């Protein structure tokens, strides 16, 4: 390991030691750390407060032709919460074990990207590289909680329009194989809440139309639908992000008592909440019909709410928010060639099973790809013991050097 590589790992560990997990991410410490790195590289630095106490840091390297559409490299600063007692190493210590695995919340999702972008830019500067197009790096708050006060605000701001962004790179996911994964769209997150009411009754009585009897019928029907979707994945007919997922998030029912629940009382109401993810090509109307007619019919005293989660996106005239991954998108070829030139392989472009900030840029028609350069790495985002191997992290910097230099050198007239 070279001195430079050691310094890059140190920097990664420093960033990981800043606790940016919800519910109280330390955005001030994170942005001050990142902007001082930007300063040491010689990047221009701006901090926007689209929402109080939620800084959005933008670092920029002006291109030699600033009239051309620019490149934006995005990562989010925040992380999901941790249950520290369930980790084998403290989640904000960034412990590096003898195998080189660095354990920390955010190591894969997605604080690796921030440091890899910066180190790639530092290396390009050092090599005397000069970009044709301007390169912007954004570090945004609140991705994990929907981005309303982060990337959503940024993407609709005048400051963003002035950047004249032509292409965006945002987070993707780790790959367990030796091929990098790349994402061209997200599934959209919806919430489904089903409620049932019915007559209360003695716990010993068999009668029709109890609230939870109706609710359980619905729960079972949804479970069968979930199984059918999951079977398509298990049989290899679809990718997991190409089906609708419906996962139970909470169940609420029963008459509370000081010792638990009143056990001889069949309750008069109950409720179940689901996280629903829908591929960009699927019409949600299809789910409404199933709910109205089979799963939660009013004739069984059931009601439901099915609503999109997160900030409202622009209506794209029914077009899915997808970035083309063929010759119709010149940026795609530049990206693909750069990955190959770095010695990497790309697997078939995928839809992201979850969602991320790239959708806020795609809604303006800006091509955006999700990419986190981690091969031969278990997918650990949002899990206990999230970690990333030092060698994988370092390789990512090299990959970005290729990608960033290719994208920012991409000549005019093609885009
Ligand atoms: C409603 S937007 C929530 C965004 C979140 N992103 C990462 O996990 C997700 O649940 O996909
Ligand atoms: Zn993320
Ligand atoms: Zn996440």
Question: How do the helices and strands line up, and which of them pair or pack?
Answer:
Blueprint: H1 3-16, H2 27-41, E1 44-48, E2 56-61, E3 70-76, E4 95-96, E5 101-103, H3 111-126, E6 135-140, H4 151-155, H5 158-163, E7 165-170, E8 183-186, E9 188-197, E10 201-202, H6 211-234, E11 245-253, E12 256-257, E13 260-261, E14 265-266, E15 269-278, H7 285-295, E16 302-308, H8 330-341, E17 350-352, H9 358-362, E18 368-370, E19 387-389, H10 390-409
Parallel strand pairs: 3-6, 3-7, 7-18, 8-17
Antiparallel strand pairs: 1-2, 2-6, 4-5, 5-19, 9-15, 9-16, 10-14, 11-15, 12-13
Helix pairs in contact: 1-3, 2-3, 3-10, 8-10
The protein binds N-formylmethionine and zinc ion (2 copies).
Describe the structure.
By secondary structure, the chain is an alpha+beta fold. The chain folds into two domains: 3-182 and 325-409, 3-Layer(aba) Sandwich (Aminopeptidase); 193-306, 2-Layer Sandwich (Alpha-Beta Plaits), CATH 3.30.70.360. It has ten helices and 19 strands. The protein has helices spanning 3-16, 27-41, 111-126, 151-155, 158-163, 211-234, 285-295, 330-341, 358-362, 390-409; strands at residues 44-48, 56-61, 70-76, 95-96, 101-103, 135-140, 165-170, 183-186, 188-197, 201-202, 245-253, 256-257, 260-261, 265-266, 269-278, 302-308, 350-352, 368-370, 387-389. It has a six-stranded mixed beta sheet. The chain has a four-stranded antiparallel beta sheet with strand order 11-15-9-16, with helices on one face. It has a three-stranded antiparallel beta sheet with strand order 4-5-19. A hairpin with a 4-residue loop joins strand 4 and strand 5 (101-103). It is elongated, with a radius of gyration of 24 Å. Zn(2+) 1 binds at residues 76, 109, 171. InterPro entries: Aminoacylase-1_M20A (IPR052083), ArgE/DapE_CS (IPR001261), N-acyl_aa_amidohydrolase (IPR010159), Peptidase_M20 (IPR002933).
